[in-house]
């Protein structure tokens, strides 16, 4: 079941976010490492945004347990020198390993997309780790396409 997150869900969401952050670090050591209390800090951030009209947090629940979540926000991406256009941003999504390949991720994305549409949003964007072929395939299957490529060069010491 996909539903809107409540106060009772924030600790579970924080724990899932920590798994997401550690998963990304395993993919690429250049991605940010979570703080020692990163999951708790993320849970606090989620708690503070549960009633924010520009934010939607959804959870996937199986047998009474939160097994996935998605965080979406309404944003204006561009600075004032461009024509303003509100869009959606899918900030985070994670489904616990034991519950993957069951359509839960897609259901979370579909439900978030409904919320974006209800707010007059024509598109949404997200980041995906370059070294994550599974996620890149998932997003391609959702109809996502590359828009910009973020690159990095380490400076010599």
What's a quick, concise take on this entry?
This protein has 157 residues and is an alpha+beta fold.
3D architecture notes:
By secondary structure, this protein is α+β, with helices and mostly antiparallel strands. The protein has one domain (2-141): Aminopeptidase (3-Layer(aba) Sandwich). Helices cover 34% and strands 23% of the residues. The protein has four helices and five strands. It has helices spanning 10-27, 38-49, 104-118, 133-141, and strands at 2-4, 55-62, 65-76, 86-95, 124-126. A hairpin with a 2-residue loop joins strand 2 (55-62) and strand 3 (65-76). The radius of gyration is 16 Å and the shape is globular. The model has no long low-confidence stretch (mean pLDDT 93).
